[in-house]
Amino acid sequence: MSTRTAPAEAGPTTIAERGRRGSVRGLGLLVVAVAVMAVLSLALGSRTIAPQRVLDVLFHDDGSEAATIVHALRLPRTVLGIAVGIALGVAGALMQGHTRNPLADPGLLGVEAGAACAVVVAIYALHVEDLAGYAWFALLGAGVAAVAVFAIGTTRRGPDPVSLVLAGAAVSALLMAVTQALVVRDAQTLDAYRFWVVGSTAGRPLSVFWQVLPFLLAGLLLAALSTPGLNLLQLGDDVAASLGLTPWRQKALGVTAVMLLTGAATAACGPIGFVGLVVPHVARRLGGVDYRWVVPYAGLLGALLVVGTDIIGRLVVPPAELQVGIVMALVGGPAFVLLVRRTRMVRL
């Protein structure tokens, strides 16, 4: 009499296969794709420069017009696009993992609203006019909003993802009300604010990148430390604790990483939507459900998406440009709807 063992083995085998779908080779291919996209970003625009010429002037600035375009105009926005894409992609993956909500977005923590409110206050009260100055105030506002949300949403057992989202929604509503009250009082403030709030990598000097880099690195470090425990948190706090994990510590690491990454990205380029919402789903389809692969996949895919949409924005309405935030909304919205309707989301 034979015993059927195949059905019992199918479940674990399938889970193991899903966990092994991510690979170093896959990450390497994504790195190559980001490098190619970066070269295209340096080459394409109102004036097209041959890729070979781009590489020549990139490493040997000969003072030519092509070298000026590459170094002064396109290199800063390309570097910022890659950095912001990585930050938002990683933050989105962490946010969806910690909340176990496939529709969670980093902006739910009130960081973007805090940054926007601080920028408006800087324009209205302190007459700050340069983008580099906006970055510092945006970081400050994002930090204050994040601390407020963290304080409100933390329970005796540590930061609770649901409470954090609710606190973030409340704080965001309050800060956006303050922002709107200020911009309707002064037309000059409104003009400056609407240029920043649309979300763009254009016109930002490379100094903005260096200003936010420490916060990006700190956020990525915390993300790397919190990612291994994120797999156990998907089983529930009680199970994770029984396996030796300290849930509140892992949540604190993850939420702090999301706040740092989102705050730095918003400070650098203004609020850019859909990256942290869409990219993690693609990362899970490519890298499986193991967050040790999902998080780096999401970061590299975020860089591809931001730089790619920035390139599209330069080419669709020549000689003018569309800001990356606008193109992201036009591309990200339909892409997310298509993703939801035509594929089955990986359950978190």
From TrEMBL:
Q: How does it sit in the membrane?
A: Multi-pass membrane protein
- What is one GO cellular-component annotation here? plasma membrane
Transmembrane stretches in the record are 27-45, 78-95, 107-126, 133-152, 164-184, 205-225, 252-279, 291-316, 322-340
Its subcellular locations are: Cell membrane
Q: One Pfam annotation, family name?
A: FecCD
Q: Name one GO molecular function term.
A: transmembrane transporter activity
User: InterPro entries, per this entry?
Assistant: ABC_BtuC-like (IPR037294), ABC_transptr_permease_BtuC (IPR000522)
Swiss-Prot/TrEMBL keywords = Cell membrane, Membrane, Transmembrane, Transmembrane helix, Transport
Q: Name one GO biological process term.
A: siderophore-iron import into cell
UniProt keyword Transport, yes or no:
yes
**Which CDD domains does UniProt cross-reference here?**
TM_ABC_iron-siderophores_like
Q: Which PANTHER family match?
A: FE(3+) DICITRATE TRANSPORT SYSTEM PERMEASE PROTEIN FECC-RELATED, FERRIC ENTEROBACTIN TRANSPORT SYSTEM PERMEASE PROTEIN
Family named by the database record: Belongs to the binding-protein-dependent transport system permease family. FecCD subfamily.
What is the protein's given name? Iron ABC transporter permease
Q: What is the lineage of its organism?
A: Bacteria, Bacillati, Actinomycetota, Actinomycetes, Propionibacteriales
